[in-house]
């Protein structure tokens, strides 16, 4: 919004493919000359940043987020990785791991 997606803002062009982004690409910029100059734009909005953000602030979020189930499933999967699994042998790695985890990042 208000900027030209270049190397820095697009992670060295790794976040947004040039010239055809894989994402639905919305470009809001105060100058119509900048929109679509580098990337194919699905939704072009010629507007300064301040009125654009005011309009966004008035919008209501969807009643139900479409990614809710996927987020829940991914969270459960992640939390399963935190539970220690029983390991075979005399050395109980799950016990050793649980002692190390609280002091790690």
Description:
With 105 residues, the chain is mainly alpha-helical. The chain has one domain. Helices cover 31% and strands 8% of the residues. It has three helices and two strands, in the order E-E-H-H-H. It has a two-stranded parallel sheet. The longest helix has 15 residues, at 68-82. The mean pLDDT is 78.
Residue share in helix = 25-40%
Question: Spatial order of the strands in the main sheet?
Answer: 1-2
| Total domains | 1
Note the gap between the termini. 34 Å
Helices and strands, in order, run as EEHHH
- What is the number of helical segments per DSSP (H or I, 4+ residues)? 3
Shape descriptor: elongated
Q: Unreliable runs, pLDDT <50, ≥5 residues?
A: none
The number of E-state strands comes to 2
Radius of gyration: 23 Å
SS-derived structural category? mainly alpha
Q: Could you report the average pLDDT, rounded to the nearest whole number?
A: 78
Strand content: 5-15%
Largest sheet: 2 strands, parallel
């Amino acid at each position: 919004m208000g900027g030209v997606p270049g190397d820095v803002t697009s992670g060295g062009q790794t976040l947004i493919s040039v010239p055809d982004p894989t994402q639905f690409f919305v470009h809001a910029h105060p100058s119509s000359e900048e929109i679509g100059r580098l990337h194919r734009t699905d939704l072009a909005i010629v507007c300064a940043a301040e009125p654009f953000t005011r309009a966004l602030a008035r919008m209501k979020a969807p009643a139900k987020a479409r990614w809710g189930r996927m987020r829940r499933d991914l969270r459960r999967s992640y939390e399963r990785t935190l539970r220690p699994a029983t390991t075979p042998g005399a050395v109980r790695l799950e016990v050793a791991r649980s002692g190390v985890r609280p002091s790690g990042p």
